[in-house]
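Subject: Protein record for review, amino acid sequence with backbone structure tokens
Category: Structural biology, sequence-to-fold work with a learned token vocabulary.
Format: Residues in single-letter code; tokens as whole numbers, each standing for a residue.
Body of memo: The sequence and its backbone structure tokens, given next.
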Amino acid sequence: MYKKLKLTTISELIKNIYCSLSVLIIGCASAYAVEFNKDLIEAEDRENVNLSQFETDGQLPVGKYSLNALINNKRTPIHLDLQWVLIDN
């Protein structure tokens, strides 16, 4: 009824495991997507906010960013000023 898989060597077994894991890892990585909730942006016209510059790593422009935290739609005393700088490698 069932055919038994016969592996001749340990190296063949390791190769098969490695190939299977590689396919699994590559498949999972390519299926990962980033989504952003535009409702978090305080703007009058949220539908026309262009977030395309943030689609890839390293695309946040240099500058000072102000951050206020809201919990359950209530402002908290948490306020941060973040400074993004360009670092030469």
Q: What stands out?
A: The mean pLDDT is 69.
